[in-house]
Amino acid sequence: MLQQTPVARVLPVWQEWLRRWPAPADLAAEPPGEAVHAWGRLGYPRRALRLHAAAVAIVADHEGAVPSTEAELLTLPGVGTYTAAAVATFAFGERTTVVDTNVRRVLARVVEGREYAAPSPTRAELDVAAGLVPEHPASARTWSVAVMELGALVCTARAPRCEDCPVASLCAWRLAGRPAHDGPPRRGQAWEGTDRQLRGILLAALRDANSPVSRGTLEALSDNEIQRERCLDSLVADGLVEPLDGDRFALPGRRAG
DNA sequence: TAATCGTGGGC
DNA sequence: TGCCCAAGATT
Asked: What are the names of the required cofactors (predicted)?
């Protein structure tokens, strides 16, 4: 849930999920559409599908218990390098290298002297991060929590609070006078008129409905027939939408809407 | 590897 | 006000 999504927005949804599905087996027993529905407006709804698939895999391959090692976690749907490392160390105490957007920004500033990290993690960057992790697993875990929190609360993207920073005295970026980002402008994500936008609109209609939705209802949501069909097809291909008989659509396995 | 994939709050 | 970006993963 936290992937590319602010913590504050995740919290209420996360709590409701854990109330409703306390164990992986509870979620795995549901049709995937229930997960998509309970995802609400968190965004990137394929994550809901993958979280459900991860629950299914945990039941099928791990006797219903979340695996405790980074390597095993990496095999789960929707779990990549960051999530596997974070869960392995924060939940299970394994010594890992946790590199999220906060860690990347902190290290870019403190070590490299740049305002922002590169668009995607570089080999050198990951090596730097790995080299800073303490040897002792418990210390490594504390280190990762600390660097992430520093990035989230103090060394923020927009208005960093250097005056409150415990490592201000050794921060290369601050010592260099906090130079602004130079190089090619960082690419913003286009939005208006994109497939992403329309997919969101279509899925929201299905999520908010109390019963399967007719094709006509979906057609009313966009005049662009080509794009509309492409988006509907892609939602079906992703497994986020299930076509039913009678030219109707619903969240997968969720006939009640 | 670069492109794709949602949403909403803060500045 | 629009723009930026948020505990990334996948193909």
From this structure: [4Fe-4S] cluster
